[in-house]
Design brief:
Layout: E1 17-24, E2 36-41, H1 48-59, E3 66-73, H2 78-87, E4 91-96, H3 106-120, E5 126-137, H4 139-144, E6 150-152, E7 155-158, E8 165-173, E9 176-182, E10 199-202, H5 204-207, H6 231-239, E11 247-248, E12 258-260, H7 278-286
Parallel strand pairs: 2-3, 2-5, 3-4, 6-11, 7-12
Antiparallel strand pairs: 1-5, 5-10, 5-12, 6-10, 7-8, 8-9
Helix pairs in contact: 1-2
Function: Involved in the synthesis of glucuronoxylan hemicellulose in secondary cell walls.
InterPro entries: Glyco_trans_43, Nucleotide-diphossugar_trans
GO molecular function: galactosylgalactosylxylosylprotein 3-beta-glucuronosyltransferase activity
Length: 289
């Protein structure tokens, strides 16, 4: 069972931009002030403190109430727990206990822990997955509170050459989705071309299927057996039937509210950071003086 830690502190008024990764859920939509539940998969690694603190500072700009759901693999690390306690953001620190040898896409299973938690505890609001490497416009989270069923928007991705910008997500006519940007995906067919950080949905879809006339009572989860690159589309297909059940944010998708940067690396540390012989390192440092 996932273990939980909580803390609560006042949240400042919103500002201009925020950075980070999260999954958000807003409180009952009938209320004027929605609670936001933010989900983040994380692991102990270099720069983890930087990314989590950057996200926390951003989440502080979102009007309360807000809940930050942070999920780790196997156990709650001391490093992550310490960071969360210091953020001043209300949070729940969960653990995915799945055998790591059975895991193909780790973040898929971490997200599923958060989805299961939301479903089990009937958290009411808007669910949002926000990658920690992204940059977000703070008013995006305000607009999410107006989502009835499923909202989607454009994510701008900086190409690997760091010169071109690729748009990913819906093509909109007012609030209606009429198509999808498919740059870089023309050779891979899928039903919906949204990014994981490019949509949010009403959490009651997870735990109140009769309200939304869902044809199946099966839990809504992400799958690590889906074709590579199509996990997001496969997930969305469980939430909505087609574009008629979606709405665009902002109107006409007139602004970019999420920027995605390529920061992936094959190595946990920068090149040549691994030190095998501490004595030789000390000697080399001494020779510099």
């Amino acid at each position: 069972m996932a273990s939980i830690r909580r803390t609560l502190s006042p949240v400042p008024r919103p500002g201009s931009t925020m950075n980070g990764e999260a999954c958000l859920v807003a409180s009952p939509l009938s209320k004027s002030s929605s609670c936001t539940h933010s989900y983040t998969p994380t692991e102990t690694r270099p720069f983890q403190a930087y990314y989590l603190n950057r996200l926390a500072y951003g989440l502080k700009l979102v009007p309360s109430p807000l809940l930050w759901i942070v999920v780790e693999m196997n156990s709650q690390s001391v490093e992550t727990a310490d960071i969360l306690r210091r953020t001043g953001v209300m949070y729940r620190h969960l653990v995915c206990s799945k055998n790591i040898t059975d895991v193909k896409e780790k973040n898929v299973h971490l997200r599923n822990v958060a989805l299961s938690h939301i479903e089990t505890h009937h958290l009411d609001g808007i669910v949002y997955f926000a990658d920690e490497y992204n940059i977000y416009s703070a008013d995006l989270f305000e607009q999410m509170r107006q989502i009835s069923r499923f909202g989607t928007w454009i994510v701008a991705r900086l190409a690997e050459n760091n010169r071109n910008v690729i748009l990913q997500g819906p093509i909109c006519n007012a609030s209606q989705v009429i198509g999808w940007h498919t740059e870089g995906r023309a050779k891979r067919f899928q039903r919906f071309y949204a990014e994981i950080s490019g949509f949010a949905f009403n959490s009651t879809i997870l735990w109140d299927p009769k309200r939304w006339h869902r044809p199946t009572l099966e839990p809504i989860r992400q799958s690590d057996t889906a074709i590579a690159g199509s996990q997001v589309s496969t997930f969305i297909e469980q939430v909505v039937e087609d574009e008629s059940q979606m709405e665009c944010l902002p109107m006409h998708c007139s602004r970019i509210t999420v920027w995605q940067f390529n920061t992936d690396t094959l190595y946990p540390y920068p090149h040549e950071w691994l030190v095998k012989n501490y004595s030789s390192t000390i000697t080399s440092i001494g020779l510099q003086f």
